[in-house]
Design brief:
Elements: H1 10-18, H2 34-38, H3 43-56, E1 58-62, H4 67-70, E2 73-74, E3 77-78, H5 87-90, H6 95-99, H7 101-104, H8 112-121, E4 126-132, H9 149-152, H10 159-170, E5 173-178, H11 202-219, E6 226-229, H12 238-251, E7 256-257, E8 269-270, E9 285-290, H13 308-320, E10 324-329, H14 339-355, E11 374-379, E12 382-387, E13 395-397, E14 405-410, E15 420-423, E16 429-432, E17 446-452, E18 461-463, E19 471-473, E20 479-480, E21 503-505, E22 518-523, E23 531-536, E24 555-556, E25 583-586, E26 606-609, E27 614-621, E28 624-631, E29 645-649, E30 652-657, E31 668-670, E32 674-676, E33 679-687, E34 693-696, E35 699-704
Parallel strand pairs: 1-4, 1-10, 4-5, 5-6, 6-7, 8-9, 9-10
Antiparallel strand pairs: 2-3, 11-12, 12-17, 13-16, 14-17, 15-16, 18-19, 20-24, 21-22, 22-23, 25-35, 26-34, 27-33, 28-31, 28-32, 28-35, 29-30, 29-33
The structure holds ligand FHN.
Length: 706
């Protein structure tokens, strides 16, 4: 496995996020940004290519394939495993048997116009459909393989042709998902080893299936806006990946490509899955994709639908962090988007009709920290406060804002009736929502617009350490972590860069020595002179501080509840999500993934940082045999070194997961079955030697029946 080093200068990355203008990597050049270098682009060219996508914010993911015909069932029985598009793998169904599904796949109710209009009316600006998923079945006419919709099914039509035409007609951007690595049908494709006939040559598979099919997809369907790879490179060689990339770009030099090609390819977009990252990579475009129920592909028996308010909260939260939200539908064997999805899409659409200004083309919140009542998106001097839950005292405080609010009103209020603004002695503004409010407050987020007297100026001061990212500090009791190798006597912070509001001098004398905690008094003359005490405490050797790397330069303060959290597992729990079925639980910080997400919408399980650190949880097991399955979750962070993760039960290792390179999917790993007695047992995740920061997510315990 290659472990490329990260060459984006940290300062440039930080500069990009500091300017709060969304994800534009303003300070980078092709020479120092692998993202730009990969496409031989200037920052301006890159920004121009990404412009529509950054504006769009909201898209529809469509998982539709032969697996829809099965809907999670095989020979009359539900096949264990949450993701129904994985039925062939989960049921270890042979290639020949699985292919028999095609004989009956006749989605006569498929209506491309209806799909596009459902997306459009939901406020979605683009769609990405599975042209070929891991089962290897092409949902389009392909000369490269007869295992395709037109040649292998009674349907005989090319649904992607019809979808492309409908997208053109209704002004919807279209993207194709293509599983280049996993292909359980064509010999040489990744995985699929439960069928001995699948064995084959990977290069041949790349040359004869992947590249020709990608060419078909990118030449026969008009302008394709996005290519969405999945599951990294697997056993495809670096050279093979390079040829795939070149073939794609030769067909369409403007296409937006995600980050899952594999190898050391970065792509244009990061693609966290089923989770909204606590923090996002500065200067990087990103898109969270998420299911509406528990599966991507159609599942007859999956009725685990997310609630519409949560979908809207997710959309707001993603936008507030500068990302896009790609929300999935899994049409059935007849070509129908499930009614539960359509209902939710219509409800989201009704909300967005009124509140779209808070989403489209907005920049990330200028405040890095979580707010108790919701989240914020920004556009020049406007802040959109997406209020999930109005506090009992009806007060919304913006604890980090130093720019004055000129005017605040509900976005839904055509009369823009002003809300009362109370400014504390500290300068911190609070908006007061009258009772009754000028607009009805329902279950969905309510948006309040705060018009500022100038651009949002959220921070009090900025430290710049030479050769390191500028650190924006706000609040009190700031702790700065610096890389282990840093010579602390050579740190020479300068103050106040970028903020005309702030001037100040350190109160203590030893400005160049961070070997011991330093306390500084900073004066912020925004009208009146105020003093803020900032304590800078280097915390070498603390959890999360390992080798020098971008990710390990952290600023912790009283607001941040995720980064730097001791990985004690104190708030961890595993939840029974399917009593009668096979899944025992899914790890999640505050609740099961299938339940409504916590107020901030995060659904990741947690960070684990530092070699040897453990997240553990005691679970009450029924007696029986279990496996632990990791399900395709990306590594968080930018640690360039792959870090293995060891899963153990009562101290005995049951599975070692080798992380892929930076930000790649972990992939799916299943432990051999282990047996436990009834009662409490400890499931632990221990981070091995490596670079020390990973996101644990979507951990599924699967009950294996005797
Ligand atoms: O295995 C797939 C899964 O079926 C689905 O397509 C998701 C969507 O991002 N991607 C993989 C898991 O990461």
């Amino acid at each position: 496995m290659t472990t490329p080093t990260l060459s984006i200068p940290r300062a440039a990355l930080w500069a990009a996020i500091m300017c709060t203008a969304g994800a534009a990597p303003a300070a980078q050049t092709p020479a120092d940004s692998p993202v730009l270098a990969e496409r031989h682009e200037s920052p301006q060219q890159h920004d121009a290519r990404m412009a529509w996508w950054r504006e769009a914010k909201f898209g529809m993911f469509i998982h539709w394939g032969l697996y829809a015909q099965a809907g999670g069932m095989w020979q009359g029985k539900e096949v264990p495993g949450g993701y129904k598009e994985w039925i062939m793998h989960n049921g270890k169904i042979s290639i020949a048997d699985y292919a028999t599904l095609a004989k009956d796949f006749n989605p006569v109710n498929y209506d491309a116009d209806q799909w596009v209009l459902a997306a459009k009316n939901a406020g979605m600006k683009y769609m990405v459909i599975t042209a070929k998923h891991h089962d290897g079945f092409a949902m389009f006419k392909s000369a490269a393989s007869p295992f395709n919709m037109v040649d292998a099914t009674p349907f005989g039509r090319d649904p992607l042709k019809e979808l492309a035409a409908a997208c053109r007609k209704h002004g919807m951007k279209l993207g194709f998902y293509y599983s280049h690595n996993y292909d359980w049908h064509h010999p040489g494709g990744g995985m699929g080893d439960w069928d001995p006939t699948h064995k084959g040559d990977t290069d041949k598979y790349v040359n004869e299936i992947v590249i020709p099919q990608l060419r078909e997809l990118l030449t026969n369907y008009g302008d394709i806006a996005i290519l969405w790879f999945d599951m990294g490179g697997g056993s495809i060689s670096r050279e093979g990946l390079e040829r795939i990339q070149q073939a794609v770009l030769a067909c369409n030099p403007n296409i937006i490509v995600n980050d899952r090609l594999g190898g050391d390819f970065h792509g244009d977009t990061e693609t966290p899955e089923q989770s909204i990252p606590a923090r996002v990579a500065p200067g990087r475009d990103w898109e969270t994709c998420m299911t509406m129920n528990g599966t991507w592909g159609y599942g007859k028996n999956d009725h685990n639908w997310k609630h519409t308010p949560d979908l809207i909260r997710n959309l707001c939260l993603v936008a507030s962090k500068g990302g896009n939200y790609l929300l999935n539908v899994g049409p059935n064997e007849l070509g129908e988007i499930p009614a539960a999805s359509l209902e939710r899409l219509a409800q989201v659409g009704a909300w967005i009709k009124t509140n779209g200004a808070a989403i489209y083309g907005t920049a990330a919140s200028p405040f890095p920290h979580r707010l108790p009542w919701g989240c914020i998106t920004a556009r020049s001097n406007l802040l959109y406060l997406c209020v999930n839950q109005l506090p009992a005292d009806r007060k919304l405080t913006l604890p980090e804002l130093t720019t004055k609010i000129a005017h605040a009103y509900f976005l839904a209020d055509a009369n823009k009736r002003p809300l009362e603004i109370v400014t504390a002695d500290t300068g911190i503004p609070t908006l007061v929502v009258p009772d009754p409010a000028p607009v009805a407050l329902g279950a969905y987020p309510t948006v309040i617009v705060a018009e500022l007297q100038g651009g949002p100026q959220p921070t009090l001061l900025r430290f710049v350490f030479p050769g390191m990212p500028p650190a924006t500090l706000s609040g009190r009791n700031i702790r700065v972590q610096v890389p282990r190798a840093t010579d602390l006597t050579k740190l020479a912070p300068t103050y106040n860069t970028g903020s005309p509001l702030v001037t100040g001098q350190p109160a203590s004398g030893a400005t160049n020595n961070f070997a011991t905690p330093q306390t500084y008094t900073i004066t912020a003359p925004d009208g009146a002179t105020k003093a803020y005490v900032v304590t800078v405490t280097p915390t070498l050797g603390a959890v999360g501080v390992g080798n020098p790397s971008f990710e390990e330069f952290d600023i912790l303060d009283q607001y941040d509840e995720t980064i730097g959290q001791q990985p004690s597992g104190a708030t961890w729990s595993f939840h029974l999500v399917n009593k009668g079925g096979t899944e025992i639980g899914i790890a999640n910080l505050q609740g099961p993934i299938h339940a409504p997400p916590p107020p901030d919408g995060t659904s990741h399980a947690g960070f684990i940082r530092g070699p040897g650190n453990v997240i553990a949880q005691t679970i009450n097991f029924d007696a029986g045999r279990y496996t632990v399955r990791f399900n395709g979750v990306k590594r968080a962070g930018y640690s360039p070194v792959a870090t293995p993760l060891i899963v153990s039960v009562d101290g005995a290792p049951v599975l070692t997961v080798t992380a892929a390179r930076i930000s790649e999917a972990w992939g799916t790993y299943t432990s051999p079955p282990f047996t436990v007695t009834a009662g409490p047992h400890t499931l632990a995740f221990t981070l091995g030697e490596g670079d020390g920061m990973d996101l644990i997510d979507n951990v599924v315990l699967t009950y294996v029946k005797y």
